[in-house]
Amino acid sequence: MIKLRLIIEEDRELLFGWRNLPEIIENSLSQKGVSWEEHDHWFSKCLSEMFFSCLPFIIVYKRKLIGHIRFEKRNDALCEVHIYLLGKYRDRKLGSEALEQGIEEVKKVWPGIVRIKACVQEDSYEGANFFMEHNFLAENAEYEKCWVFFRLLNR
Ligand SMILES: CC(C)(COP(=O)(O)OP(=O)(O)OC[C@H]1O[C@@H](n2cnc3c(N)ncnc32)[C@H](O)[C@@H]1OP(=O)(O)O)[C@@H](O)C(=O)NCCC(=O)NCCS
After folding, report:
1. Counting atoms of ligand 1 from 1, which one is nearest the CA of 81?
2. CA nearest ligand 1 atom 21, residue
3. What's the CATH number where 81 sits?
4. pLDDT of the residue at 145
5. Ligand 1 midpoint to CA 107 (Å)
6. Pocket test for ligand 1, best of 65, 72, 91, 125 (most atoms within 8 A of CB)
7. Domain total for the chain?
8. 66: domain range?
9. How many Cβ atoms are within 10 Å of 128's Cβ, its own excluded?
10. Which pLDDT tens digit goes with each residue over 105-119?
């Protein structure tokens, strides 16, 4: 059983290290690592906007920190999800648990949200399968350089 905990200041370096791991870069939309300056700015923004427009969590499994899931509010009705697990924890349904728990948090914190968007890097069949398995529907979005999925929230 996984748990989600909100990020804290002490996670700044942890998330920088994770974001630059080859196994995370490989599935990222940019396909590139990030500099400390970029990360530092992004992380501070994440902390300062927490609950207003960002819900960022560390995924915890048996007291180990195994990945990150984050919801970013795009407008009053729509938010976007980003999720990754460290390689050795994948394919064990832990991502599924994290996604569903995260969505429950979104419903509590942002009751107005009715749609969740996910963008998946074009080569990532695992990512695409993952979201489709969780009732996300693919949308033909030619203007985006990624696969786009949406899930409607039933309350
Ligand atoms: C996407 C990710 C979070 C899924 O978490 P996970 O714990 O590995 O996935 P689960 O074990 O919960 O699998 C759920 C479903 O996802 C799909 N899936 C997961 N891993 C897959 C793989 N290697 N190949 C194909 N489909 C896969 C399957 O449909 C699977 O259902 P099934 O086991 O009944 O076939 C994880 O693989 C990951 O961190 N990937 C890299 C980052 C990424 O691509 N993030 C998505 C874009 S934001």
Report:
1. 48
2. 126
3. 3.40.630.30
4. 77
5. 23
6. 91
7. 1
8. 2-152
9. 19
10. 999 999 999 999 999
